[in-house]
Amino acid sequence: MNKQLIFKQRPVGMPNKDTWALETNEIPEPGEGEVLIEHHYISLDPAMRGWMNDMKSYIPPVQIGEVMRAGSIGMVVKSNNHPMFNVGDCLTGWGGVQQYVVSNGENWYKVDPNLAPMPTYIGTLGMPGMTAYFGILQEARIKEGDIVLVSGAAGAVGSIVGQIAKIKGCHVIGIAGGEAKCKYLKEELGFDGAIDYKSENLATALKRECPKGIDVYFDNVGGDILDAALTRLRMRARIIICGAISQYNNKTNVQGPKNYLSLLVNRASMQGMVVLDYAKDYGKAAQEMGMWMMQGKLKSKEDIYQGIENFQQTYERLFNGDKMGKLVLKVLED
Question: What span, in angstroms and rounded, lies between the C-alpha atoms of 106 and 118?
Answer without folding.
Answer: 20
